[in-house]
């Protein structure tokens, strides 16, 4: 397995390192009082200490968020639409032509076919009260290493959605209508 460590669980502002501690990806979302927030996802250039912009997610509350990369813009509802009665799963077609799905409850990426093979799993940080202290980590199967950029972009999107839902449900009377919050920006 490939283990990637996040500097924080706030995926819209984090640094992602590999097992050797090298920064591979980083995300940044500047604070804004009004309008859409935009998360920039950067990837390290091979054999360099510089970063290239992999893409941007423009977060919206009542309309579909958007993903931009390489001069192309796509609505997230089109790129990674909801699946299931409550929309707790998000599905997409990978660059390899295979269908995949993120489960927001289990934090697992699996093939969305008969095999349901797990290819990535998010492990939240632990404080070490029970067991050892651990930073947030993304465990990725070598099976999808060829599409790591897609795994990272979709993970950032679904984990931000999951955290927003968690915040809403933890508020007094928070079982009502859900809309992505901007409380993390």
Written overview of the protein:
15% of the residues lie in helices and 35% in strands. The chain is of the alpha+beta class and 185 residues long. The protein has a 13-stranded antiparallel beta sheet with strand order 7-6-5-4-3-2-1-13-12-11-10-9-8. A hairpin with a 6-residue loop joins strand 4 (37-44) and strand 5 (51-59). It starts with a strand and ends in a 15-residue tail after the last helix.
Q: Total number of helical segments?
A: 2
End-to-end C-alpha gap? 31 Å
Helix content: 10-25%
Provide mean pLDDT, rounded.
Answer: 89
Task: Summarize, please.
By secondary structure, this protein is α+β, with helices and mostly antiparallel strands. It has helices at 76-79, 148-170; strands spanning 2-6, 15-17, 23-28, 37-44, 51-59, 66-69, 72-75, 82-83, 89-93, 99-103, 108-111, 118-123, 137-140. The protein is globular and about 40 Å long.
List keywords for this structure.
15% helix, globular, 13 strands, 185 residues, disordered C terminus, alpha+beta
Record the SSE blueprint:
Blueprint: E1 2-6, E2 15-17, E3 23-28, E4 37-44, E5 51-59, E6 66-69, E7 72-75, H1 76-79, E8 82-83, E9 89-93, E10 99-103, E11 108-111, E12 118-123, E13 137-140, H2 148-170
Antiparallel strand pairs: 1-2, 1-13, 2-3, 3-4, 4-5, 5-6, 6-7, 8-9, 9-10, 10-11, 11-12, 12-13
């Amino acid at each position: 397995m490939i283990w990637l460590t996040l500097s924080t669980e706030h995926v819209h502002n984090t640094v992602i390192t590999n097992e050797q501690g090298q920064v591979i990806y980083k995300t940044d979302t500047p604070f804004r009082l009004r309008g859409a927030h935009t998360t920039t996802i950067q990837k390290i250039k091979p054999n360099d200490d510089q970063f290239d912009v992999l893409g941007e997610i423009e977060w919206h509350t009542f309309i579909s968020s958007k993903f931009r990369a390489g001069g192309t813009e796509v609505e997230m509802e089109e790129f990674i639409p909801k699946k299931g009665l409550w929309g707790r799963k998000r599905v997409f077609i990978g660059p390899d032509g295979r269908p995949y799905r993120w489960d927001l409850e289990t934090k697992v990426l699996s093939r969305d076919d008969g095999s349901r093979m797990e290819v990535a799993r998010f492990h939240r940080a632990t404080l070490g009260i029970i067991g050892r202290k651990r930073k947030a980590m993304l465990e990725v199967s070598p099976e999808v290493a060829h599409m790591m950029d897609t795994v990272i972009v979709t993970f950032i999107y679904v984990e931000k959605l999951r955290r927003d839902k968690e915040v809403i449900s933890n508020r007094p009377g928070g079982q009502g209508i859900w809309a992505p919050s901007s409380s993390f920006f």
